[in-house]
Amino acid sequence: MFIFMLLVYALVFNKHIMSEYKAAVLFLPALSLIGALLQIFIANIDCTYAGISWGCLIVFFYYQSRDVNIDYLTGVLNRRGLDIKMQDMVKSSISSGKDFTAIMMDVDNFKDINDSMGHEEGDKAIKIIADILVDTFGRSAAIGRFGGDEFCVITDELDMNQINEKIDEVRDYVAKQSARNNWPQGVGISCGFQSYKHDSSLTAKQFQELIDKLMYVEKQSHHQLS
User: Which of 71, 104, 188, 210 is most buried, judging by how many CB atoms fall within 10 Å of its CB?
Assistant: First the structure.
């Protein structure tokens, strides 16, 4: 009955469960079912109860560890999650010789949304932009909110033409959402991106600071044009 009810819950509320958690939600009834099957062969141990208990513990620790690294507003990685991912990617690049690309993005004139339309609309804008990044770069990329209205994307993509195309897609989508939601004029995206070279000897922090500076260079040019 427990397994059945959990499966029904997962199916009925499928759209409301974050994709990162779906595997864990389904893992619990799977482990419970294994315990129930083992109970047929091992009569002197309550395997069903043990399976449910282990499943609950695993799901609890999984949720807890993920929530520490997830931005509560957008559902993408938070600053802590991004820092951990960047460090892991740099270590992997140095050891394997496989390079990667990181993109830092900032929302131009985001303060104007908060000032003219309120913080609730500002939060909505942040969520929309996070969704645009996920849709554009895909689930295989590590996407996170660096802080405030800054985002970071870490991807295995190394072709700069394709990176530029994806950034243009993001800008187009943001422009459409800006018109649809009546955001103030000038709301857009400034970007800085660079491929990490495994033989560059840059630390994760140094590489992050590099793309951050590149992003601010473009942001300054946007302000000069406005």
Answer: 104
3 state DSSP class of 138:
coil
State the angle between helix axes of 119-137 and 110-117 in degrees (0 to 180), rounded to the nearest 10: 140
Tokens of 162: 């394709």
CB under 8 Å, gap of 24 or more: what pairs does 222-225 form? 222/108, 222/188, 222/190, 223/108
Contact 145, 79 (CB under 8 A): yes
Residue 50, pLDDT score: 78
Distance CA 175, CA 162 (A): 20
CB of 154 closer than 8 Å to CB of 98: no
C-beta of residue 174 within 8 angstroms of C-beta of residue 149 = no
Confidence at 104, pLDDT banded by 50, 70, 90: very high
Report the C-alpha gap between 25 and 7 in whole angstroms: 9
- pTM summary value: 0.72
Tokens of 70: 């997830």
Burial of 113 (0-12, 13-18, 19+ CB in 10 A): buried
